[in-house]
Amino acid sequence: MTTATAEPAIEDPFASLNPEQRAAVEHDIGSQAPRPLLVVAGAGSGKTNTLAHRVARLIGAGADPQRILLLTFSRRAAGEMSQRASGVLHRLLGRGAAARTQAPVSLPWAGTFHSIGARLLREFAGRIGLDPQFTIHDRGDAEDLMGMVRHEIGLSRTEKRFPMKGTCLSIYSRVVNSRDPLDQVLQAYFPWCAEWEAQLKTLFGAYVDAKQEQNVLDYDDLLLFWAEMAADPVLGAELGSWFDHVLVDEYQDTNRLQAAVITGMKPDGRGVMVVGDDAQSIYGFRGATVRNILDFAGQFTQPAHLITLERNYRSTQPILDASNAVIGAALERHAKTLWTDKVSAIKPQLVLIPDEAEQARWVCSRILEQREEGVPLKSQAVLFRAASHSAALELELMRRNVPFVKFGGLKFLEASHIKDLLALLRFAQNPSGRLAGFRVLQLIPGIGQATATRVLDAVGESSDVAATLAAFPVPARCSVEWQAFCALYARLRTPGLRWPQDLELARDWYAPHLERLHDDFQVRALDLDQLVALSGGHANRESFLAEITLDPPEATSDRAGPPLLDDDYVILSTIHSSKGQEWKSVHVLNVVDGCIPSDMATGNQDDIEEERRLLYVAMTRARENLHLIVPNRFFIKQQSTMGDRHVYATRSRFVTPVMLKHFEESAWLSADKRELRTPMPDSVRMLVRDRARNAWK
Ligand SMILES: Nc1ncnc2c1ncn2[C@@H]1O[C@H](COP(=O)(O)OP(=O)(O)OP(=O)(O)O)[C@@H](O)[C@H]1O
């Protein structure tokens, strides 16, 4: 490394790291065969920061960025990691002041497991019998295809109701990702479906056939095929030889298949580093297993080195005390106790409030008060267990004109107009994809399921799809629309079309349909604009379709659009989507039994433990102020015959009486009038508890 004389003095970007972080960053630097490394660390202990420094250190020591595989949980995390590593690297190279203006280091192999898997599969497609033009089904598409197959093989007409398509896909996915046999998965997680084991096997076989015929892969296939390649002695070794370093963030949320990908590519663990926190493992419901962390040390042909980070840099000591108490009651975990030197006299608040409407008003008022005290809206977040829990608060924020952005709610790709447009592009990309074709064809007025099926059958047998479509005898009443569609389709299939022209053509064709189908077409048109804006970042249609399916934008514009015009807005987020982030002030809604733990998740002990970790994740997002809100009356949406109703709620079981000393409790009868705040005498507390219990008798 050389420094020109005119450049500022080299600053040591690693000076701020603590000894354990530094040990992780320096681990086997300069060695030809770096041993596998596991960094286990508590919330806010700088895992992600350490990983970014490690990447910079490796590159600074001569590693080729093209040969670094960096696997993160989301695309956003991959981008942030590249940014952070660049900053460190520029400082390392003595360009401290200019670091912010320097282009980030390009890490071409930084991304999610799924997106990297998709890229590798396209590279290797020819050798593993895949057509490289494959399209990727998101969860919704996969569910629909499962539904179609379920219907085709007669399972939708069974006398006793066969599991719904969504359940079938969940079972299938769990089997694939956990690598456990079907009967075990059924017994453990779907006991009410166990009687259908034989039929499910048939269904899953037919589903796999359908995917193959239509040249589509679902999310699980991206991992499954990658793991299969990695397990092959020849392909696995070849894949492994592409990368000198394999770094994985958030390892606690990986599943067995993902672990198999790593061990297949790097059986001796050379150059492998993973970071994670077993206490933050919150994706068990998707088949992630905390065993990956617990078993990491013995997974390779040489033992892994372990470094533990316990110093927390994020939260004040009272917030940590409360969080440690909550996670301390967990049944099984890596023993570690977080500490910090951030003293504070402010304990986390436990706020009792009459109902959800008051909760919304109260939170909104506190957010505004804090803003008056100088805390920008962006430094404040409201977290909740399920996306629907923020409905009352969203209304209140709108009423008071407080801008917000919501993460983890209705996903962009779930909106029907986005699905329509993407289906059109997918059908142009891969005419064998029946699901996309089925959706698009029915956009044309006069074409229903029967005609669409016949068209797709004809397409399936044709070598010139555009010509087949043009010649297809559709009912006379739709011939004008049909011709317009065929002309569009032919253009979309024309070689040499310059992306994103395809998307613009598709949008123009779709515009009148959007207007015909939706009253709020103007709002929805904004989403389509957003889609066009996103398209610019991609080289071609294929990469756009793959990426958008794998890592969709978080929110639709009717929610996220207007607030984004403001430069300050509150963050509303599900706890799952808050992973890896931090805010100065955090409000957690509905800290009551039935929400945390969710009443959907009280089936078995593992589920309950995962809910406990969720609360821990939520609490450890806060830097200075943490509020857990406990509404006394809570509205639940029932699937049962009782219908939706209000219930009396009790404080979440994860905040036990012995933990109350870590909180400051307060009760509010009304959100707005400060004088109505009461310090809550014990007698009242007893009353409230009794009432809550009686409601369940
Ligand atoms: N050595 C350090 N000195 C000062 N601040 C640090 C240090 N290491 C990390 N931090 C800060 O601590 C905070 C948490 O870091 P980071 O996000 O990397 O933690 P994490 O372990 O990935 O957290 P979590 O798992 O809870 O999401 C960040 O604000 C980061 O800048």
Automatic annotation (TrEMBL):
One of its GO terms (cellular component) is cytosol. ATP binds at residues 41-48. Keywords: ATP-binding, Helicase, Hydrolase, Isomerase, Nucleotide-binding. It comes from the Bacteria. It catalyses: Couples ATP hydrolysis with the unwinding of duplex DNA by translocating in the 3'-5' direction; ATP + H2O = ADP + phosphate + H(+). The keyword Repeat does not apply. Its EC number is 5.6.2.4. The keyword ATP-binding applies. Residues 317-580 form the UvrD-like helicase C-terminal domain. One of its GO terms (biological process) is recombinational repair. Residues 15-316 form the UvrD-like helicase ATP-binding domain. GO terms for molecular function: 3'-5' DNA helicase activity; ATP binding; DNA binding; hydrolase activity. Gene3D superfamilies: 1.10.10.160, P-loop containing nucleotide triphosphate hydrolases (3.40.50.300), PCRA, domain 4 (1.10.486.10). PANTHER family: DNA 3'-5' HELICASE, UVRD / RECB / PCRA DNA HELICASE FAMILY MEMBER. Belongs to the helicase family. UvrD subfamily. This is DNA 3'-5' helicase. It comes from Massilia aurea.
